[in-house]
């Protein structure tokens, strides 16, 4: 029940260092289940989703050592169960990677999954279709537990996805990496974290080609050896700080990024009039010099504009002169946070998957609540621009995916603090 308290109106300036990518880390950590020796993973973001998935591996029997804030050593050899059904597993969406990893190792998996989420139904039919093609018998049993089993080793197969799906692509890679023969995934997702997972597995001795294109070929291997691997930087975290800097008409050097991964984001910023300069591992943006104008955005799978930056950009666009049209093409219902922005004076109307954002002269502070991780980031951005005080609640969503967000924003000039709400106060206000 803790909150963030923001006093807006200060342009952000300075440098921010981006952490490792959440959506890579939550796949690479369960992928360590497939490794036949201990491995070390570096540049892991220090966020609660990582703690959760690392604890799930521990509960399965792995030895997980935190070497430092950003490095884990994982020895999965002691794992002797393929059943991950306790409540902590249900607590995170990315638990579905346990199915692919456990299937790949034991040819069997029993994994509890969360239900829907705040931006729509989250089906896993494409994951299950892929596992079935590799020879696993899959069933969704009571209470949302997936049981996938195969009497022998899984076998390679052709898997054609009906929809481009990050999770399905990674999950089939995990299941296929030790299968007999060759698997070909067609209509694969191409996000940077897909390439990262393939690089992690290949450095351990896997044979995966084509990651980052829409056809991925995986030839099964018998053994994966230990390595030290460093996770890629988080493109969405970078996009979030950029949107915040632009909304406040500031300037920012965003360090520890792969500029290529940010192309769709920096292209939009250039369109609206922001100065963008790219370096080898950093991007500098400046929104303080030129007038900025509205733009239209359509979210798409990579290399299109990422859905995970959509809420942050809507918050930013609501402060720019003119009308922007934002179309959400990945999720059915990812505009729930808009009603919170309306409380702050934004002018946005939503019809199905389209939001029409009319820039306003001023947002004003209000008590608002995060409805999910990126929605929470959008509310922080709005709060950083708004006059007066904004109180953002349900920040547990935000802390699942943003490392040290308060410290990072404060270091670039934001007036933001965390207010700890004692339990008895929660009880009286509940
Ligand atoms: N879909 C299906 N069937 C499936 C799987 C997906 O129809 O079996 C549909 C989904 O309903 C959705 C679309 O395909 O409409 C894309 O879903 P995808 O599988 O790509 O999403 P995901 O793997 O569940 C990951 C990220 C999300 C991000 C999406 C899209 C993780 C843990 N999550 O989810 O990240 O929005 O890819 O890029 O990697 C976030 O970080 O805030 C976040 C929600």
Number of helices: 15
Largest sheet: 4 strands, mixed
Remind me, CATH topology of the largest domain? UDP-n-acetylglucosamine1-carboxyvinyl-transferase, Chain
- The radius of gyration is 22 Å
Helical residue percent band: 25-40%
Mean pLDDT: 95
Ligands and ions found? uridine-diphosphate-2(N-acetylglucosaminyl) butyric acid
Q: What is the number of domains?
A: 2
Question: Widest sheet: strand order?
Answer: 22-23-1-24
Taken from the alpha-carbon principal axes, the silhouette is: globular
CATH 2nd-level architecture of the largest domain: Alpha-beta prism
Strand tally is 24
The H-level CATH homologous superfamily of the largest domain, spelled out, is: Enolpyruvate transferase domain
Indicate the proportion of strand residues: 15-25%
Q: Would you state the CATH class of the largest domain?
A: Alpha Beta
Alpha-beta content class:
alpha/beta
Low-confidence stretches: 426-430
How far apart are the first and last residues' alpha carbons, in Å? 10 Å
């Amino acid at each position: 029940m803790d909150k963030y308290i923001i006093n807006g109106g200060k342009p952000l300036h300075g440098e921010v260092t981006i952490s490792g990518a959440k959506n890579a880390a939550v796949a690479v950590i369960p992928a360590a289940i497939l490794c036949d020796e201990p491995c070390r993973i570096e540049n892991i973001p220090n966020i609660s989703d990582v703690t959760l998935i690392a604890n799930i591996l521990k509960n399965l029997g792995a030895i997980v050592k935190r070497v430092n804030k950003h490095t884990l050593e994982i020895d999965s050899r002691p794992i002797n169960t393929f059943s991950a059904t306790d409540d902590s597993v249900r607590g995170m969406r990315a638990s579905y990677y346990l199915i692919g990893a456990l299937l790949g190792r034991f040819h069997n998996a029993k994994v509890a999954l969360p239900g829907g989420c705040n931006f729509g139904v989250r089906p896993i039919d494409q994951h299950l279709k892929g596992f079935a093609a590799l020879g696993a018998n899959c069933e969704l049993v009571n209470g949302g537990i997936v049981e996938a089993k195969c009497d022998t080793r899984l076998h390679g197969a052709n898997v054609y996805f009906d929809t481009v799906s990050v999770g399905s692509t990674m999950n089939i890679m995990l299941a296929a990496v030790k299968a007999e023969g060759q698997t070909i995934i067609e209509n694969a997702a191409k996000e940077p974290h897909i390439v990262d997972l393939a690089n992690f597995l290949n450095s351990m001795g896997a044979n995966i080609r084509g990651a980052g294109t829409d056809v991925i070929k995986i030839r099964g291997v018998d053994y994966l050896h230990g390595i030290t691997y460093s996770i890629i930087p988080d493109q969405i975290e970078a996009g979030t700080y950029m949107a915040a800097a632009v909304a406040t008409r500031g300037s920012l050097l965003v360090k520890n990024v792969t500029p290529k991964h940010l192309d769709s984001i920096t292209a939009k910023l250039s369109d609206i009039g922001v100065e963008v300069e790219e370096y080898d591992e950093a991007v500098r943006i400046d929104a303080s010099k030129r007038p900025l104008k509205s733009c239209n955005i359509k979210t798409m799978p990579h290399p299109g504009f990422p859905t995970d930056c959509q809420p942050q950009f809507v918050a930013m666009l609501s402060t720019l002169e003119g009308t922007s049209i934002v179309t959400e093409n990945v999720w059915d219902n990812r505009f729930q946070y808009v009603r919170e922005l309306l409380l702050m004076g934004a002018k946005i109307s939503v019809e199905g998957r389209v939001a029409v954002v009319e820039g306003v002269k001023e947002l004003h502070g209000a008590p608002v609540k995060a409805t999910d991780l990126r929605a929470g980031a959008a509310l922080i951005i709005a709060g950083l621009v708004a006059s007066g005080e904004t109180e953002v609640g349900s920040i547990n969503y935000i802390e699942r995916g943003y490392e040290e967000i308060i410290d990072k924003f404060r270091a670039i000039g934001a007036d933001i603090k965390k207010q700890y709400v004692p339990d008895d106060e929660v009880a009286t206000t509940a």
